[in-house]
Design goal:
Helices cover 53% and strands 4% of the residues. It has 259 residues and is mainly alpha-helical. The strands form 2 sheets. Strands 1-2 form a two-stranded parallel sheet.
């Protein structure tokens, strides 16, 4: 069941006393589940979830309390999307990346979670096991609430998700190609590109061969975008070592002349 779920069993007296000691207010008929959510939100210093966040949770069938915090709700959405499979996981991730890009550019949201264009982007991302792997790694830091750094009103600098991951880069590229974010949000120029689509065989996150191949393809694309230098660092190191060896040999050869 999705949406608000308060349960029927009333909160225990122990819960009530603890909540009062924290200065929390609550209705007399509050349930055990709602009280637990209320306490978790306070103890974890979570923010109250807004109606927009709860609608996103509804889209993935997440049950929540009216006291569920924002971070707790986003973590539950990630788990629900992940359980549904790679396409839904990528749909949630791409939606959050799209929101980040458009918010940064001062644009209104151009796609909903149910948008066919967003679903098409998600399908392409889901065919790349390295992207799935990258999404899981990114979720360990932040449940896709926001990216980059943020300075709180009290001056504390907070760190969100990284925009430098493979998953974020691929989502951004595909979203822009689809005209859903960034400079192409209002008009699309040039042909649309997409990730290569290997044949599917279920959830491929744990297929080491496909992960390695996809990562190599991503590194190749990244290297093609970078300006070529006259000499690589590895080549310079090899030449330096060769020079040192040659100098050492020369000293060994001429040392007897000075005895």
């Amino acid at each position: 069941m999705s949406g608000h779920s308060s349960g029927s069993r009333p909160a225990t007296e122990k819960q009530r006393n603890y909540a009062r000691s924290l200065g929390l207010s609550f209705p007399d008929d509050i349930s055990v589940k709602d009280m637990s959510a209320l306490l978790d939100t306070r103890l974890n210093k979570d923010k109250p979830a807004k109606s927009t966040h709860k609608r996103m949770a509804d889209a993935f069938g997440v049950a929540y309390s009216e006291y569920t915090g924002k971070r707790a709700l986003f973590e539950a959405i990630f788990e629900a999307a992940d359980d549904k499979g790679p396409a839904d996981l990528c749909r949630w991730f791409a939606f959050r990346v799209c929101r980040d890009i458009e918010k940064t550019n001062g644009r209104p949201m151009s796609a909903s979670l149910h948008s066919p264009s967003l679903s098409a982007v998600a399908e392409q991302m889901a065919d790349n096991p390295a992207v799935i792997d990258s999404i899981h790694d990114a979720a360990e830091t932040d449940p896709f609430i926001w990216w980059g750094t943020f300075t709180a009103p009290n001056g504390r600098v907070l760190q969100g998700g990284s925009r430098g991951t493979l998953a974020y880069s691929e989502a951004k590229r595909l979203l822009e190609d689809a005209g859903l974010a960034g400079a192409n949000a209002t008009q699309s120029t040039g042909p649309k590109t997409s990730l290569p689509k290997p044949a599917r065989s279920g959830y491929t996150k744990h297929d080491p061969l496909r992960v390695a191949q996809a990562r190599q393809q991503a590194r190749t694309r990244d290297s093609e975008k970078k300006p070529r230098t006259a000499m690589s660092a590895q080549t310079r190191d090899r030449l330096l070592i060769a020079g040192l060896v040659a100098a050492g040999l020369a000293l060994i050869l001429i040392a007897p002349l000075f005895r």
